[in-house]
Amino acid sequence: MQYYFRYIFQFSILFIGLNVLFSCENFKGRKDKTGPEADTTALMPVMKFGIPADSFLLITGIVENNQYLGQLLSRNGIGMADIDRIAKKSRSVFDARKIKSGSNYTFFLTPDSLKQARYFVYENSPTEYFVYELFDTHLCMDY
């Protein structure tokens, strides 16, 4: 009789142990879904110079001889008053008079029909670039 109870006790412990083991395993693999086949992975935005490049149209170019910041900005719809404000505010970070020919630049334009310039990035060297914010506060950031 003791052998019988011992056998039932061992079997029940084994059964409970396996039940706990497999129920925990199912719990780990379970995913909360909001729909029948919901995908919870979010796409990361494509960043260029710290700006989400997939949200803008990009125009890149190279600074030509005797070209200065005012010419680059006015070609992309920035008014002279804004150019003056940008040059004055950015002087403590980067003096716009030191733009040199052969350097790369990039304009970030809105993707709508107006195509307004929102950011201007000037690459001073392969490791240093300046981001000009062309709307709102007209900031210039050094990276």
Task: Give an overview in words.
This protein has a domain at 47-142: Nuclear Transport Factor 2, Chain: A. The termini are far apart. The chain has helices spanning 2-29, 69-74, 80-90, and strands at residues 47-48, 51-52, 57-62, 104-109, 117-123, 129-133, 140-142. The chain has a five-stranded antiparallel beta sheet. A two-stranded antiparallel ribbon has the order 1-2. The mean pLDDT is 83. The longest helix has 28 residues, at 2-29. With 143 residues, the protein is of the alpha+beta class. The chain contains three helices and seven strands, in the order αβββααββββ.
Q: Examine the secondary-structure arrangement and name the CATH architecture of the domain at 47-142.
A: Roll
According to DSSP, the number of beta strands is: 7
What percent of the residues sit in helical stretches (DSSP H or I)? 25-40%
Order of helices and strands: HEEEHHEEEE
Outline type: rod-shaped
Query: Which segments are poorly predicted (pLDDT under 50) over 5 or more consecutive residues?
Result: none
Instruction: Kindly report the spatial arrangement of strands forming the biggest sheet.
Output: 3-4-5-6-7
Cα-atom Rg, whole angstroms? 31 Å
| CATH topology (level 3) name of the domain at 47-142 | Nuclear Transport Factor 2, Chain: A
Strand content: 15-25%
Which quaternary structure do these chains form? single chain
Alpha-beta classification: alpha+beta
Described by strand count, sense and barrel closure, the largest sheet is:
5 strands, antiparallel
Mean pLDDT: 83
